[in-house]
# Entry
Amino acid sequence: MVDMTNKLNLDIHTILDTQFNIDFKGYSPKDVDAFLDLVMEDYETYQNISAQLNERVSELERTNASLRAKLIELEAKTRSYEENAGTNISNVDILKRLSRLEQEVYGNKR
# Structure
């Protein structure tokens, strides 16, 4: 996941604490303050959305890890069942053969 906080140049406090030089022909301090208030409001909204999305990503990563663990567990169980099914078939085949042999050997003597 990309950490956006290290890539940003400004934060709310930097914007708030920025001082502008007042010049005879400069911008109106009221207009600059009003504009910066809008910038700060938007920036705060952006930070809140970013924090919510980062939390959602973390939640989805936890869910993903949990599901991966369950998948691994189920795959292991499936392999175990398949191996046991193969063994059971082999045992059944062996029992059938043994039964046929017993019939041939003991069936004629009875």
About this structure: Residues 4-78 form one domain. The mean pLDDT is 82. The radius of gyration is 37 Å. The helical segments are 12-17, 29-107.
